Amino acid sequence: MDDEYATPAALPMRIEIQREDLASPVALRLIRALDAELSRLYPEQGATHFRLDADEVAPERGGFFVAYVNGSPVGCGAVRQLDAETAEIKRMYVDPGMRRRGVGRAVLAALEREAARLGVRTVVLETGARQPEALRLYEATSFSPIPPFGEYVDSPLSICLGKRISL
């Protein structure tokens, strides 16, 4: 079969995770897609928490990472150190057409490695009650429910999860 007629699903999938600048065009495009999806899922006033500052993902405090499949950016995630023991995973997103193919797991693994590099022992995150795919991913990767923290304390649609990591 000629390669020009191969379907994307028939091509071997190579996932690469790369650190990106939060203000890069690739990062901004993925973040816009994530924000649009979250706004559709959670139209209620105050139901979304989009804030992430560039200094929070500077190499000494965390990182923003992009997943590339066969050279195309299809997902992202960030980790930011909260304190000496804890880092928070933020802005996890995978293009809907690439979900359930290992991209989210690859991003999450990269974020956990970055958290370990920072020297923390626990990673925490917030996801929403209307995101069953995300909840399944986190459950499958050993995250457990924790009490709401930070900006999510009074957010009734937030589900907070945490996990101990090894250094």
Explain this structure to me?
The chain has a domain of 116 residues: Aminopeptidase (3-Layer(aba) Sandwich). The radius of gyration is 16 Å and the shape is globular. The N terminus is likely disordered. It is built from 3 helices and 7 strands; from the N terminus they run E-H-E-E-E-H-E-H-E-E. It is α+β, with helices and mostly antiparallel strands and 167 residues long. A hairpin with a 2-residue loop joins strand 2 and strand 3. Strands 1-2-3-4-5-7-6 form a 7-stranded mixed sheet, sandwiched between helices.
Widest sheet, order of strands: 1-2-3-4-5-7-6
Q: Could you name the CATH class of the domain at 3-118?
A: Alpha Beta
CA-based shape: globular
Helix amount, in percent?
25-40%
Mean pLDDT: 91
CATH fold topology of the domain at 3-118: Aminopeptidase
Which second-level CATH architecture of the domain at 3-118 applies? 3-Layer(aba) Sandwich
Q: What is the ordering of alpha helices and beta strands?
A: EHEEEHEHEE
Give structural attributes:
alpha+beta, Aminopeptidase, 167 residues, seven-stranded mixed beta sheet, disordered N terminus, 7 strands, single chain, 3 helices
